[in-house]
């Protein structure tokens, strides 16, 4: 459709203007924020001293339109990153 958005738009905090981003910059911004949240909320051990190696700062919620293989890869990615809150609409 003629009204379809074809560029990635970003609005900086407290800004009133949107700026177009190229895909590489947008993906870098997402990766930086993901890694920062993971780093900031990383837990090596729980309150009893048990090793947990997890982050509570990152979560995933999948949708029913994603096929089984994609859900498997998303689960593996977020588990490898240390996330424990990984849910899927098809399971809820």
UniProtKB/TrEMBL annotation:
Per the record, the domain of life is Bacteria
What name has this protein been given in UniProt? Dehydrogenase
Q: Write down the species.
A: Candidatus Nesterenkonia stercoripullorum
């Amino acid at each position: 459709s003629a009204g379809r958005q074809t560029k990635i738009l970003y609005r900086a905090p407290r800004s009133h203007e949107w700026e177009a981003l190229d895909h590489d910059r947008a993906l870098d911004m997402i990766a930086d924020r993901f890694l920062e949240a993971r780093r900031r909320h990383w837990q090596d051990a729980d309150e009893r001293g048990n090793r947990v190696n997890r982050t509570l700062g990152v979560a995933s919620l999948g949708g029913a339109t994603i096929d089984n293989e994609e859900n498997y890869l998303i689960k593996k990615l977020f588990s490898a990153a240390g996330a424990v809150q990984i849910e899927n609409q098809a399971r809820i």
